[in-house]
Amino acid sequence: MRKAISTLLLPIVLLSASTAAAAQQVVVEANKSIGVPIRNGEAASVVIGNPNIADVAVHNEHLVFITGRTFGTTNLLVYDVSGRQLFSGDVVVSTNNQSILVVNRAGENHTFDCAPNCKSVLAIGDDRTYFERNFEQTENLQSLNAAD
């Protein structure tokens, strides 16, 4: 009886081991992109858990790009045409703290990226008026770029 049970459980254990081996972690800075190679098959379906944290773009069946949007953690799943999982991993979006400067004025945070010159950036936790002004300017800039 034990032999029959172990024979039945073997495929489940092997499947779990192959899925666990495919689990990875990808770290990308906010507002930067990295390439993620898909080596064990051809990607047919790519899903990012939270597109507010990171975005994914498919270059081809063997390469996807992840762009960090804001700091946080989400996940990336990649499947082939038959539904076999090729990639499963957490996407951790961090900030480059070396160039970030946070100015606190009377209890209100204002965040700047100072590489090489200081510019206002969108950051969660900033003063609401400051954040909304930066957000509006960012949207206006994106709409100008889309018109080109």
Describe the structure.
The chain is of the alpha+beta class. It is 28% helix and 43% strand. The chain has two helices and ten strands; from the N terminus they run H-E-E-E-E-E-E-E-E-E-E-H. A hairpin with a 2-residue loop joins strand 4 and strand 5. The chain is elongated. The termini are far apart.
User: What share of residues are in beta strands?
Assistant: 35-45%
Q: How are helices and strands ordered from N to C?
A: HEEEEEEEEEEH
The gross shape turns out to be: elongated
Low-confidence runs (pLDDT<50, min 5 residues)?
4-22
List keywords for this structure.
148 residues; alpha+beta; four-stranded mixed β-sheet; three-stranded antiparallel β-sheet; 43% strand
Provide a compact summary of the structure.
The chain has helices at residues 2-22, 128-147, and strands spanning 23-29, 33-37, 45-48, 54-60, 63-68, 72-79, 85-94, 100-105, 108-114, 118-120. With 148 residues, the chain is an alpha+beta fold.
What is the strand and helix layout of this fold?
Elements: H1 2-22, E1 23-29, E2 33-37, E3 45-48, E4 54-60, E5 63-68, E6 72-79, E7 85-94, E8 100-105, E9 108-114, E10 118-120, H2 128-147
Parallel strand pairs: 1-7
Antiparallel strand pairs: 2-5, 3-6, 4-5, 6-7, 8-9, 9-10
